[in-house]
């Protein structure tokens, strides 16, 4: 399911770029409610957003943009 079906992308941006002083689930839920999120949306995403704030994971390493490898030569007789 696309994330924009769960929460208005603007609400997620606002909470992410200006997080509440309390980054707990309750603090996130309150901020989302202030922005206009519906209760069912808050119940689904507030725990996930709070977890991301409290236990951030590093971004995966970028893959190099090297030229694609040439195919192996055909060695069939």
Give a brief description:
With 77 residues, the chain is mostly helical. The protein is 47% helix and 0% strand.
Write structural notes for this entry.
α2 crosses α3 (39-54). The protein has helices at 9-17, 25-35, 39-54. The longest helix has 16 residues, at 39-54. It is built from 3 helices and no strands. The protein is elongated and about 70 Å long. The chain is an all-alpha fold. 47% of the residues lie in helices and 0% in strands. The protein has a domain at 3-54.
Strand content: under 5%
For the secondary structure, the number of strands is 0
The overall pLDDT, averaged over residues, is 86
Structural class category = mainly alpha
Kindly state the percentage of residues in helix: 40-55%
Distance between the termini: 51 Å
Low-confidence stretches: none
Described by strand count, sense and barrel closure, the largest sheet is: none
**Tally of helical segments:** 3
N-to-C order of helices and strands:
HHH
If you compute it from the alpha carbons, what radius of gyration comes out, rounded to the nearest whole angstrom?
A: 21 Å
General form: elongated
């Amino acid at each position: 399911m696309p994330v924009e079906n769960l929460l208005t992308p603007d609400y997620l941006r606002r909470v992410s770029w200006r997080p509440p002083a309390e980054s707990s689930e309750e603090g996130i839920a309150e901020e989302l409610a202030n922005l206009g999120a519906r209760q069912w949306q808050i119940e689904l995403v507030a725990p996930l957003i709070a977890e991301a704030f409290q236990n951030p994971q590093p971004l995966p390493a970028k893959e190099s943009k090297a030229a694609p490898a040439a195919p192996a030569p055909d060695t069939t007789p």
